[in-house]
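Our preliminary data section would be incomplete without showing what the modeling component actually yields. Below, a chain of 188 amino acids is followed by its predicted structure, encoded as tokens that our downstream tools consume directly.
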Amino acid sequence: MNILVCGGAGFIGSHVSKSIRRAGHVPVVFDNLSAGHEWAVQWGPLVRGDLSDRDAVEAALRTHAIDAVIQLAGSINVGESMQNPGKYFRNNFSISVSLLEAMDAVGVRKIVFSSTAAIYGIPAASPIPEDAVKAPINPYGEAKYFTERLLDWYTKARQFQCLALRYFNAAGADPEGEIGEMHSPKPT
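Predicted structure:
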């Protein structure tokens, strides 16, 4: 399979790309390099572009004969989202609208979305059951939740196959030392 990894030049994206290659598939990284690093793209081609540019996304999907998408791109700082909510709705929701429209136009209907456990807000129980009430308390979590709702509608209306991964902070090192966390400033 050829898999478009949006945000594939970042910490999580580079690890995902490496895993995709190890599984015998081709990761095609789509990244604007605003937070990622070109050196982290080692297992497949890099397409420099912004997800808000639907034409560029459609071109990448067609040129690389993409079978599925993993959407990891977006802004990640919860505190900053409280100071600049527009940035978080633009970078975490609006770009996903553009991506889904491009995918639909090209006929790619499989997507894994990097969501967040922040959609649960302050959970009533721990561990948090997947069906717990969704009540985000910041723009970061809310924008991710909006995207999950959008994915639900694409599943119903356009027969997409969607999976949302809801996790807290990802951390760890690459056992081979080839890639790693390089945020500046460091994530909270």
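The chain is about 35% helix and 15% strand. The chain has one domain: 2-165. Preliminary results of this kind motivate Aim 1 of the renewal.
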